[in-house]
Design brief:
By secondary structure, this protein is mainly alpha-helical. The chain contains five helices and no strands. The protein has one domain: Orthogonal Bundle (Arc Repressor Mutant, subunit A), CATH 1.10.10.
């Protein structure tokens, strides 16, 4: 079961590489992690109506770490509160 999921993820990543990440060899890991972080943090902030302390607790990270990621990823707190 896990092997099948790993193969599907690998297939998807290879497709993404061909379509969106061409010419960015050696950066794919960080690009994908940033995209996942941004989506996860944005959605968690929306669920908590922008409450960073609650969002950090839900994510299992320190509030300062969350704030640093928000800044690094350019997440708008105003949009998260909607």
């Amino acid at each position: 079961m896990i092997d099948d999921e790993a193969k599907e993820i690998e297939k998807a990543l290879l497709g993404l590489d061909r379509l969106f990440l061409r010419g960015k060899e050696g950066q794919i890991y960080h690009i994908m992690l940033d995209a996942l972080d941004k989506s996860l943090i944005t959605n968690t902030l929306a669920i908590t109506f922008g409450n960073q302390i609650r969002a950090a607790k839900l994510l299992g990270i320190n509030r300062n770490t969350l704030r640093a990621k928000i800044k690094k990823l350019g997440i708008s707190l105003n949009e998260a509160k909607k």
